[in-house]
Records
---
Amino acid sequence: MKTVRKLIYREVITSICLVTLGFLSLFLFFDLVDELPAIGRSSPLDGDNNVYMLSHALLYVALQIPNHIYELLPISVLIGTIFVMARLAQSSEFTILRTSGLGPWKALRLLLSLGAVFVVISFAVGDYLAPVADRAGQLLKAKFQGRITIGQTGAWLKEKQPYSNSVVNVRALSANNEMQGIRIFEFDNKGLVVSMSEAESAQFGENDAWILKATTRTDFQIRPSTDGINQAVESANVSISREAEMRWPTDISAEMVSVALLKPDRMATYDLFNYVQHLKANGQTAQRYEIEFWKKVFYPLSCLVMVFLALPFAYLHFRSGSVTSYVFGGVMIGISFFLLNNVFGYIGNLQNWQPWLAAAVPGLIYTVISLGAFGWLVLRR
């Protein structure tokens, strides 16, 4: 059994690596083509005359490799395993292995063990390498092409504090991880505006605080009428102060700002979980981020589904012809899984489905297909 395991593992791993390399080369070529129009341009911000060169574009494309590997790994596992299983069936090698004692359940355990290895690899790449590399790539582009921002006004965050509530607007994130265009609105427990602070920039300080620079703070002191009939505002005092640097205590971390400004599917699972808890604690909708969190949880497990789906191809009886049609079928199945995974994420967000269900449905559909194929082609026939 050890020899059989070594044979199948070597063939499958080699095939998966080749498929991943082929897809990766194609994606990197498209990424580089997308970056070509930006080459030779300089940043319009802060008088920076640094020019975005071809070397910078190549570095940015290279930083996208971990994210592409994470996205392509389940598809590569499916195509690579199908290719090996179909080729072994075509050459009758798998028939020899079956007569040597490799039953369906042993073959399934063999492939599931290999699939579990790719689950760990997928989780490690998607949770550790991809977020760091993607963040570095976005900051690199921000250095030469402008700041990281979303929409016209940037990101909005909300935070509940013991005696007040705060709404924070971060317009952009610069290349040196500095926030720009900060506006902070503070409300009392009655919902009245207490103060408004505007800062040109801010940095993440120590001990849960932001260091605001070039800050203008406007305080509103409102005194309600003592008239028991009409509680109209009697007077309001407005005071304006300016400070070169001001410390603002907050629990909004750098990771939370990054999630709000960057794509949530590029963030680590733990950072997404913390951001979801932050949104819920402050009474904000977290549906989109919850779906992305559960997709990050379930997506690596799809490697197990893919090897399960590929096993029946070893039990197809043919002696002549090519395995090209089966590999093409694997490509189509992999693409359909990728599309279905994205479509159900959008549908779940629009229809307000349970986040874990919206993320798990594609995997469940292909698990049912795998069980049906395994039961029909392997057990019954």
---
Amino acid sequence: MKSIRKLIYGEALSSIAAVTLGFLALFFFFDLVDELQHLGKGNLVEGTTYQLRHALLYVGLLVPGRLYELLPISVLIGTIFVMARLAQSSEYTILRTSGLGPWRALRLLASMGGLFVLLSFGVGDYLVPAADRVSQQIKAHFQGSITVGRTGAWLREKQGSRSFVVNVKSLSPSNELQAVQVFEFDPQGLVVSVTQAASASIADDEAWLLKDSLRTEFEPAAAGSDAAGKVSDKATPNNAGVVRRTRAETLRWSTGISNEMVSVALLKPDRMRTLDLFTYIRHLQANGQSAQRYEIEFWKKVFYPMSCLVMVVLALPFAYMHFRAGGTASYVFGGVMIGISFFLLNNLFGYVGNLQNWEPWLAAAAPGLLYSAISLTAFGWLVLRR
């Protein structure tokens, strides 16, 4: 059994590595061509321009994300190629007569698939977020700050009876928050204060340090009193009460909104760590906000590595087919189509689940469950019944 495992694992791993390198080289070329349009542009303030070496570095940092996305497809194509080649050369028939039964072969491939599950999880949860953060900083350095839409990111937090709505326009290359606005509301939903700051940084204790800030406080007039009589030197009277404005070079604001939460709001959630997404979901739920989109992304990050296990099981029935000379290529092409369909279906279920308000775990797990049923059906029909 040890010799059989060494033979199949060696062939499969080398084939999967070749397919993965081919896909990564292809997407590296496409990404580099797409970046050529930005060459020569730069930061006018610092006098730096976006050069070819910067484009190569940026595209290189996209490779971990491409690897995470393409790994299940590469596992499927590589394993199908090995199984089909062993069947065509009658080597698999020899292995079957040597004691490699269907269930033993399934356990053998499932063990290999488990290794790719761990690899996919490690790449997606640790390597991809770190590489994406650096790549976004490179983009921001040469092409401006990181932002989402025209209004930036909006966050909400409750502190006791008061609630706060925070707007962050963009994120600077040095990871500093730009054009920050903090709206404070009382329990009745009335605006108590508005704080505007040119920039902000997050301290170690998660307090925000608002720089060059202007705080505007709204105090309602007491019943039966003259609002103008209560106005201080720095206040402006109006019909509703008193407006006080205070400027400060640095203003400290205690909040539970961490840097990771702002990053999730400004960057793509599928590029964040699973733990950071979970923390942000808890924050949204605690503040009465919809977390459907982020819950789907969270469960997709949980279930997506498991698709590598589904793919190796889906490839096993190809070892029990009868091949003619040159017939391997058509089955490998079929594997490519299956992998592409799984990738498209995985994205489709995410969007449909968000629109139709499906259970997040079901929207994320549905493609894997569907292809698992297909693979087990094919295994039962081709392997066990034939």
